[in-house]
Amino acid sequence: MSYGHTITVSRPYEEAVTLTREALSGQGFSVLSEIDVRATFEAKLGSDTGQSLADYLIPGRRRSRGGADRE
Question: Does the pTM exceed 0.90?
Fold first, then answer.
């Protein structure tokens, strides 16, 4: 069994991350965590391993109880 989900956007990585954060916040999601996969690999396995990865961020979000107007 394999699982994957890929979306390609025509924006630079940092801009896409910023726009995604703003869109999620606008829908009432707050930040629980963010995992920078490349930085984690570099810290745990060395810079050579991290440099072989593309930019990759795992956003951890939760929906605020009151919806978009509450944090």
Answer: no
How many angstroms separate the Cα of 47 from the Cα of each of 20, 21, 43, 57? 27, 27, 7, 17
Report DSSP state, residue 53.
S
**Would the pLDDT of 70 be above 50?**
no
- Asked if 64 contacts 28 with a C-beta cutoff of 8 angstroms, the reply is yes
**Alpha-carbon 28 to chain mean position:** 16
- Residue extents of the structural domains in the chain: 32-63
Closest CA to 56 of 67, 42, 71: 42
pLDDT band at 5 (very low <50, low <70, confident <90, very high): confident
